[in-house]
Each structure stands twice: as C-alpha cells, then as structure tokens.
Amino acid sequence: QNMQNMLTAVFGLVLLALVAIVSAVSPNDLVPSGFGPMHVLLGTAANFAILSKAGVSTTGTTAITGDVGVSPIAQTAMTGFGLVAKTAGTCAGGGAGSCATSAVVTGLLWAASDTSPTDVKMTTAISDMETAYTDAAGRTTPNFVEYETGALGGTTLLPGLYKFSTGVGFTGDCTLKGSSQDTWIFQIAGDMTMDNGKQIILVDGAKPENIVWVVAGRSIFGTTSHFKGIILGATLAEFKTGSSIDGRVLVQTAVTLDATTVVQPP
Known about the structure:
Elements: H1 2-24, E1 48-52, E2 55-59, E3 63-65, E4 67-70, E5 78-79, E6 84-86, E7 99-102, E8 105-111, H2 118-138, E9 144-145, E10 156-157, E11 160-164, E12 168-170, E13 174-177, E14 184-188, E15 192-194, E16 200-203, E17 211-215, E18 219-221, E19 226-233, E20 237-239, E21 244-251, E22 254-258, E23 261-263
Parallel strand pairs: 1-4, 1-21, 2-5, 2-22, 3-8, 3-23, 4-8, 9-11, 10-13, 11-14, 12-15, 13-16, 14-17, 15-18, 17-19, 18-20, 19-21, 20-22, 21-23
Antiparallel strand pairs: 6-7, 7-8
C-alpha cells in the first residue's frame, strides 16, 4: 500500500511538472495542431510587410498594406514612395522615434537613420529576420527532397518540409492544399522564379502566414503573377509590373516593386 501511495505521488508530481512546462511555452514554439513542420518564429520582423537590408524601390501604382522597413541602410534607400516625414514621437509603436508615411503604403515606413529608438527597433527587426532565415534554412529531415526537380507549376503541394538543392520555378499555377493549421517550409538553394500571370492557389483553408519560402538566391515574380506566403530571402526580391503577394517580403538585400500589391497576413 505504501509503495502504491508513493508511485501515485510521484506520478502526480511528474504530471504537474509537465503542465508547468507546457504552460510556459508559447503556442508558436509548438508543432502545429495540423500537419507540417514547426512554425518559423519571425520575432519583431513579423511587424513588417516588407523588410530589407539594402533598400526598397517602387514605380507605378504600388499598394502596400503593412509597414515597410530598411536597416542598416538609411531612409534614402526607400525610393519612389514620396515619403512624408512624421514628427518624432507621433509614430504608433515607435516611442519617441521618427518614421515616415507614403500615399502608397497603408502603414508606416521605418529606417535605421530615423530618430532613436527607431534605429534600435530596426536593428532588432533585421536580427530577428536573419535568425528566422537561419532557422528555416537549417531545418532537417525533409518530407520531400527535390520534389518534381523544382518544377512546381501545375503541382499540388501537401504540408511538409521541402528541400531543393537548386532553384524552383513556376511555369504554371501551383496549389497548396491543407487546413488552416497546416504548415509548409520550402528550402530553396537557388533562385525562385514565377512566370508571368501565374499564381499560388490555397485550398481547404491553407493560410499564407503558415507558408515559408526560404530562398538562398533571387526571388523573381513575373508580370501580373500572384504569390502567397512569407519570403525569407538571402538576396534580391523583384516584383515585376502588376505582380502581387499575400504575405511578407523579408530579404537581406533589396526589394524592387513595379505597380505591385503587397498585403501582409494577420
């Protein structure tokens, strides 16, 4: 009887310890309730629709929903926006720092050259972006390796971790099929290119915020193409005339836009 009581007590303590551990972990640190890899944590980079280390340029009738940020480069690297400076201390979420607005951005534009603490805000966001890239690129045990040799046009992609040792191209539409809880990570060692007029289609509840494209090369989107997901890029992201994305563009060099529509996910 004493042994049984002791075992019951030990089991109770172990159960309480497990509950405490689970309670202390953020839901984003856990495997999603659906299928696919663990979420990639973006940190403060998730506060931006576009984040770049080398600059953002736009021409034509671009429309961006969400904030735009550059660092360590200065505000002058954001071109074509017709920036209007906001007085320091009047930028929501910027404390006493300064920022800018633009007629083509529903949100704010931030740069390392803005009044402190905006510079700190931007340094942290860039660091978080780079950490997210390293995490996503370093995931192991892929579910799919060299799927369709990277020719993803006309394919339907289920949740999972995809690994490509070269580039990925979309010569046709591509469908991602999964629930609102499912996740995708695409590790792409080369360029990612989408032909003119092609698109990513989400079905069965799949969400752009659960899709991560980690691209070592360039990301190039053809005219009137429509992309979905979070781009974590090591180099250039180029959006050609009339292209669009539901997601985020977080890259370590430059972003170019031409009459591009960018809508950040929740």
